[in-house]
Write a structure and sequence with these properties.
Elements (H helix, E strand, L loop, with lengths): L4 H11 L4 E7 L2 E6 H18 L6 E5 L4 H12 L3 E5 L5 H10 L4 E4 L2 H9 L9 E4 L13 E3 H14 L3 H8 L5 E6 L9 E5 H14 L7 E3 L7 H14 L2 E4 L6 H8 L3 E4 L1 H17 L2 H22 L6 H22 L6 E4 L6 H9 L4 E5 L9 E2 L12 E2 L4 E4 L4 E5 L6 E2 L3 H7 L6 E9 L5 E6 L4 E2 L9 E2 L1 H9 L4 E7 L6 E7 L1 H10 L7 H5 L2 H19 L9 E6 L19 H7 L1 H9 L3 E9 L5 E12 L11
């Protein structure tokens, strides 16, 4: 696609000037912004930034939630030939230092007081950060800081400049080439400093357009933009594809209203990582447990039928007349109302990516008539590497290569990708670039997998994480930690799992309970508790989690390849894993190595056969203060099942 983001904006403004480009919910009311309004805002912000001294090729930080003015600022930066860098709005101030200094950032957009405070806190470490513009003025009226100004002031100054120099904006936009750098995204940094992933207009828009053609997306789609703009997935779905297709992007009022806003908008195109789908399912199961006996019985009856029939119907396969009739009744009584309650009654295509999704979780959504599909990609590949066709969405694959993408698998199982959507390189890090990009244009994904007989890609785990059991009854068996973790996380009572077993004689896991689900379960049983730590160590809760672990073990015993990955021992952690404590990345991926070091006493206790282990952990609170949480944890055995031999 030989164009740029801003050229696409101006094209939509010319062809559909009064069509809605974005909606923003403010004070409970949805406000619409047309393509003409958006183009005007972008022009004025760009003129203001030019006057302030933003130069072509410079970087500008944008940090905040999805808001029309944040998107407009990114477009304004790109229109001047500068490069926006979205940062995670929930990142601690210290996490902003490396990106700002690495990219030599002088200009920043901060959504509100929280983000302004964060940037001002690190200003001594980033002396070149001279211009900070804020959107929401609440709490900032009495700030008297050099270089701090409102976006309204910038827009007003820009309007004056644009009125005097009518050709300025058009001339700047025409200077941009598709091969120019369009944006930079910093990786989550599971090891060491994050890396700046450099993408061009061409790489982002080619990938976005390929995905849009695959799913026949048009300007008629409605999308809810609720995930961090700093995540490449959100950026592709709500920015690159938005400008490529011209559909409507809806910005929720706040993180706490997303569920309500989802129901109000009823998106046709929906994207979420597995964690969001897990959370939605957990909320459904909690409500069903609180329902009356008749309603519960009806729900479970029709859901059992849906699991048997639903996926086949979604894939366009024929089913028996009786099964189809029962499913139709179930759709009227259960599945339809459930889709509506989830805010997915209008969803035509739903995607999950970022992490592997548990097969049971995936099947649940497809069984109730939601066209949930998996895609495979990364920040470096602009998301789209593999996608699932509508009638070939299988739980154990991530689909076929996207348009223009080539895939090959090395002898060690690592997947290599060649694509027009590949990044240009890591910013100021040629050594890291050379590690993953070959001279022939192939990108080393570090994921292990293989192409099946249907041409679909199957992902096993990260190459470095796939291991072998050493010793014991399953000596030499394959161990895939992510697969085990995902199977356990399907249960609504389990929020997070960390599995260990490579080079050891058995598999042990550490588990986070889901506070909402287990708390609800405990209250219905009149089980008193005083917070997470107390609830997590209740004997009744351990029995509940043990049943989940043993159900997973029973499933794994029937898997010839992964029977050795059954969980021998487990514990329930005394605190929730948290990105602020370094245990998760900002995209909520488990930092398994870091956790193993931090909780070495617990890992050793599991493998040494201990029945309990004291642990004290330093935690960081939202306001920056630190404290500690301590507990004596129970370490428990789980039943291991003999592998089920396949029928001859």
């Amino acid at each position: 696609m030989q164009t740029t983001f801003v050229q696409l904006l101006l094209q939509h403004a010319a062809e559909r000037p009064q069509a809605t480009a974005m909606r923003e919910k403010e004070y409970g009311v949805w406000q619409a912004l047309t393509w003409t309004d958006l183009a005007g805002m972008v022009q004025h912000i760009a003129a203001g930034l030019h006057q302030a001294g933003l130069m072509r090729g410079e970087h500008m930080i944008v940090v905040g939630a999805n808001r029309p003015r944040l998107y407009a600022t990114m477009l304004a930066v790109q229109s001047l030939g500068a490069i926006p860098i979205p940062l995670y709005q929930d990142a601690a101030a210290a996490e902003c230092v490396f990106p700002i200094n690495n990219a030599e950032v002088r200009f920043a957009f901060a959504e509100d007081q929280e983000q302004v405070d964060k940037l001002l806190e690190v200003r001594d470490q980033c002396p070149q950060l001279t211009h900070i513009y804020f959107d929401d003025p609440r709490g900032l009226r009495k700030y008297d800081v050099l270089g701090l100004a409102s976006l309204d002031e910038l827009i007003a100054a820009g309007k004056v400049f644009a009125d005097l120099h009518t050709e300025f904006f058009k001339t700047e936009v025409e200077k941009a080439k598709p091969s120019d750098v369009a944006a930079m995204f910093f990786t989550s940094g599971t090891t060491g400093n994050p890396k700046g992933v450099v993408h061009t207009h061409n790489s982002l828009l080619t990938a976005a357009n390929a995905g849009a053609r695959f799913d026949k997306l048009t300007h008629a789609e409605d999308v809810l933009a609720y995930l961090p703009p700093a995540w490449i997935g959100q950026n592709i779905f709500s920015y690159a594809q938005w400008l490529s297709c011209g559909y409507v992007v809806n910005c929720p009022e706040s993180a706490s209203t997303v569920t309500i806003d989802l129901k109000e908008i009823g998106p046709t195109y929906y994207f979420a990582p597995p964690r969001v789908f897990e959370g939605l399912l957990t909320s459904v199961m909690i409500r069903m447990e609180d329902a009356g006996a008749i309603k519960r019985k009806m729900f479970h009856y029709f859901m059992a039928k849906a699991k048997k029939v639903g996926p086949a119907l979604m894939d366009g396969k024929s089913v028996g007349m009786v099964d189809r009739l029962i499913y139709t009744v179930g759709n009227w009584m259960v599945y339809g109302p459930l889709r509506n309650n989830l805010g997915m009654s209008r969803v035509r295509v739903a995607y999950t990516a970022g992490e592997a999704i548990g097969p049971d979780l995936f099947t649940f959504y497809r069984s109730i008539g939601i066209n949930l599909k998996q895609l495979y990609g990364s920040t470096e590949t602009a998301v789209f590497v593999c996608q699932q066709p509508d009638n070939q969405a299988w739980a154990d694959t991530v689909g076929v290569p996207s348009l223009g993408v080539e895939i090959k698998v090395q002898d060690n199982g690592e997947i290599l990708v060649k694509s027009p959507g590949l990044f240009k390189g890591y910013y100021k890090n040629q050594a890291a670039t050379d590690e993953v990009l070959t001279d022939g244009g192939w990108y080393h994904t570090s994921d292990a997998g293989f192409l099946d007989a249907h041409g679909h890609l199957k992902i096993i785990d990260r190459v470095k994480d796939v291991g072998r059991i050493k010793g014991g009854a399953f000596d030499g068996a394959m161990f895939a930690p992510k697969y085990v973790e995902n199977k356990l996380k399907f249960f609504p009572h389990i929020k997070e799992v960390v599995a260990y077993g490579d080079g050891r004689e058995k598999v042990c896991v550490m588990i986070n309970i889901d506070m909402e689900a287990v708390g609800n379960w405990a209250e219905r049983r009149n089980l008193p508790y005083a917070g997470y730590t107390d609830l997590a160590q209740k004997p009744e809760v351990y029995q509940l989690i043990k049943e989940c672990v043993e159900k997973v073990n029973a499933d794994l015993s029937a898997d010839t390849l992964l029977a050795g990955s059954q969980v021998s021992r487990f514990l329930v952690l005394h605190k929730e894993l948290d990105a602020d404590d370094g245990e998760l990345t900002r995209t909520n991926k488990v930092r398994r190595g870091f956790i193993a070091e931090k909780y070495l006493a617990l890992v050793d206790g599991l493998y040494d056969g201990k029945t309990e282990q004291f642990i004290e952990t330093v935690v960081k609170f939202e306001d920056g203060r630190t404290g500690s949480v301590s507990a004596t944890l129970k370490l428990t055995d789980a039943t291991i099942y003999a592998p089920v031999k396949a029928a001859a």
